[in-house]
UniProtKB/TrEMBL annotation:
One Pfam family per UniProt: AAA_31
Domain AAA, chain residue ranges per copy: 11-191
Role of this protein: Involved in chromosome partition. Localize to both poles of the predivisional cell following completion of DNA replication.
CDD domains: ParAB_family
Database matches in SUPFAM superfamilies: P-loop containing nucleoside triphosphate hydrolases
Xref: InterPro entries: AAA_dom (IPR025669), DNA_Partitioning_ATPase (IPR050678), P-loop_NTPase (IPR027417)
Name of the featured protein: Chromosome partitioning protein ParA
Domain of life: Bacteria
Length: 272
């Protein structure tokens, strides 16, 4: 199989949106879990100093001694930072608050925007036996050097967008940044898709936002929308993806559908 093939490059998807609270981390954890459940081998890289992806996957301080801070600072390799999670097939490169300082530490380095890209390239060489097939990068809520590192390392951007009034405004700013990264740092970067999160069918505004985003972004918008679901918001405090917490809830089912859509798009891209 492709997953078992030697030297296969993982697909590197970055979850980006400079707004906080739109579902980046929730989508990283649960899309990652759903992909692993389908048989992919997945690595989540936590690039947010808040470390919500690490906490949400139940990774305690003791397992964060080598973190993405050390990787970006050049003090450790990416494989050295990786820890297993409660989900079979899902691994994590955790983050800690140290990551807040790395931007200043590397600000004057020529390769400052390429640190993560180089680290992921080193990963491929290390993973000859059973390589990761997907790498998901969870970004902080800002278009800072951490997010630029993620966009420079990625094949494609997956944009979680909350169904609320100012959603489109933030989206155009992000698209401008993606365009800038493409022309200066990573010419192969594409938009994988926009995933609408926290959708509430009883809210008329939600419906209007969905219509506007679909008109603006066309078929870049995934058919799957993630509903607002209390089980999704409860799961992180148990240190579990919602798929392990309550597989039957609407949130879990939506993330499983999103994973199969992501895989379908990947197949279509490869066939093209
Ligand atoms: P970001 O990483 O973009 O800042 P999060 O993924 O942390 O956003 O989500 C923000 C908050 O919204 C969190 O408390 C999370 O649990 C909650 N949340 C995310 N998605 C859903 C959902 N589908 N239903 C209910 N709550 C959600
Ligand atoms: Mg987050």
């Amino acid at each position: 199989s492709e997953a078992g093939a030697r030297g296969v490059k993982p697909r590197i998807l970055v979850l980006a949106n400079q707004k906080g609270g739109v579902g980046k981390t929730t989508t990283a954890i649960n899309l990652g879990t759903a992909l692993a459940a389908i048989g992919e081998k997945v690595l989540i890289i936590d690039l947010d100093p808040q470390g919500n992806a690490s906490t949400g996957l139940g990774i305690d301080r003791k397992s964060r001694q080598v973190s993405t801070y050390h990787v970006l600072a050049g003090e450790a390799s990416l494989p050295e930072s990786i820890t297993e999670t409660v989900v079979p097939g899902l691994w994590l490169a955790p983050s800690t608050l140290d990551l807040l300082g790395v931007e200043l530490e590397i600000a004057n380095e020529r390769d400052r925007a390429h640190r993560l890209r180089a680290a992921i390239q080193g990963l491929a060489a290390d993973q000859v036996k059973e390589p990761f097939t997907y790498v998901l990068i969870d970004c902080p809520p800002s278009l800072n050097l951490l997010t630029i590192n993620a966009l420079t390392a990625a094949d494609a951007v997956l944009v979680p967008l909350q169904c609320e009034f100012f959603a489109l405004e933030g989206l155009s700013q992000l698209l401008t940044t993606v365009e800038q990264v493409r022309s200066a740092l990573n010419p192969d970067l594409t938009i994988h898709g926009v995933v609408l999160t926290m959708f509430d069918p009883r809210n008329n505004l939600s419906g209007q936002v969905v219509a506007d985003v679909r008109e603006f972004m066309g078929d870049k918008v995934y058919e799957t929308m993630i509903p607002r679901n209390v089980r999704v918001s409860e799961a992180p405090s148990h240190g579990k993806p919602v798929l392990l917490y309550d597989i039957k809830c609407t949130g879990s089912q939506a993330y499983l559908r999103l994973a199969s859509e992501v895989i379908q798009r990947e197949r279509a891209l490869r066939a093209a």
